[in-house]
């Protein structure tokens, strides 16, 4: 029997957080409705973002609202709190939570008590002390960033088509992406396709006028798909007039000039930073054990090592890979593992409550797929390598099968079908970022400018 009024706190509403809560909601439905168990999900956003679809959302192939899954809709038996956990004291089973209400009224963080803790806050962008990065770069982890980047690229084309200053035009049409992993390569591929298509509607712009640059600090891109497909990807990108600069670092982007470690300089108004992630900083504000990379030390049962009633998975957890041959290996921080870990984690919490043996998480990587733009991709599945349209179709089929809820699957499939029948919609909705600007102007205020001037001395 489950003891009376067990409080389960899930920190994070991403892959692991949402899928763990879904699993618990399904397995403990009767206890939840009787009030014997309470599940609270704390997330900074009221939705889960399916990140593999962000490049297509940025390119306009998928509507932004179909890339996200509303937490309250899929977790009706759970209490969803929009806020952030700032600290965890597991010794006394409490978590400090700030919400919009506490911030607005200037109150201290609320303390949430719990009996079982699931830490799944995910990761944040890993940045380096690069001059000008915070002021000028754009990230690519959220749907807001993806749509903001789309608007920004189209606005740069508007600037280039309307200026007579050759330096400004060149800077507006130069797009620098830093990081050769999934996010960087897929975002670059999709956005270049979109921009080349949009150029046909600008009489004074040609696709050849645009300069696309991929900067990668290591000697390969897309390490997940293997060295051979990584080399194939570099070849395909270069055939599309994309400069792929390997073993190269971004040294500075101050003054809207991207300065690289090999001495090259690119005046640019667009720097997209996708150079990796790091564990969420809340992990450092807990009394739980961390590994040298700042992740929670976990067992193969997804329990936090040496601690009772604390669980973790996904990007925030160092989970032993029991299928690996090398000692000390941990599972890769990707969606393929996160989705499966969430199911095991949810089951193990239920087993703990019922006094049953725990399951061990074990999954051998099936392969990897990546899109390089419309009708282009690479894939490695069960040892077989695919490229071009077959890989692109496999990429779409795989992620369509993994996106949560039948509702989302149907809407995404419908959008893909319509996109194949009709032309792309190329429009910037940058005004959405400042929805009150027009009213403020009418009321005599000073709304923010859509295109802030570059610093003096820059292009």
TrEMBL record:
FAD/NAD(P)-binding domain: residues covered:
7-338
Keyword annotations from UniProtKB, A to Z: FAD, Flavoprotein, NAD, Oxidoreductase
Stretches of Basic and acidic residues bias are at 450-459
Q: Which InterPro entries match?
A: FAD/NAD-bd_sf, FAD/NAD-binding_dom, NDH-2
Q: Does the keyword NAD apply?
A: yes
Q: Which Gene3D superfamilies match?
A: 3.50.50.100
Q: Give the protein name, as stated in the record.
A: NAD(P)/FAD-dependent oxidoreductase
The molecular function terms in GO held by this entry are: NADH dehydrogenase activity
Q: Which family does it belong to?
A: Belongs to the NADH dehydrogenase family.
> What are the start and end residues of every segment in region (Disordered)?
438-459
Record has Oxidoreductase as a keyword? yes
Under Pfam families, the record lists: Pyr_redox_2
At the top level, the lineage of the source is Bacteria
Coiled-coil segments on the chain, per record: none
